[in-house]
Model the fold of this input.
Amino acid sequence: MARATAAQLVVVALVAAMLLASPRTANAILCGQVTGDFVVFCINYARRPPVDDPPSSRCCRSVKGIADAARTAKEKLTACDCLQSMLKGIRGINPETAASIPSKCGVSFPFAISTSVPCPDFSLMINRSPAHAVDVA
Done:
């Protein structure tokens, strides 16, 4: 009986390892990645009235990390949805200050940090590969 249980545990562990190592999972962005550092390092700044001084360097690293992690259209949509959901659950957020964080950090962000601006429709980009992108500049 103990051998059967140990063998079952080994099989479960191997299946879990294969799932965790699959490319589909490896490329996914999780809400915890998006909101974790942002909550810790940016929320106090986002509650302030609009000011000229920039957010902390830790907040800016958090925002840059989100922008860097959200590469695909699906990841950008996930990141946007996660940030919006998180912001809706926190009292005292100043919408203008929160929206200004990426630009004050010098980070190009693919969506607004806002609870009132809907996430962009990234669906047009979801099925495109970078090889088929067209530069219109």
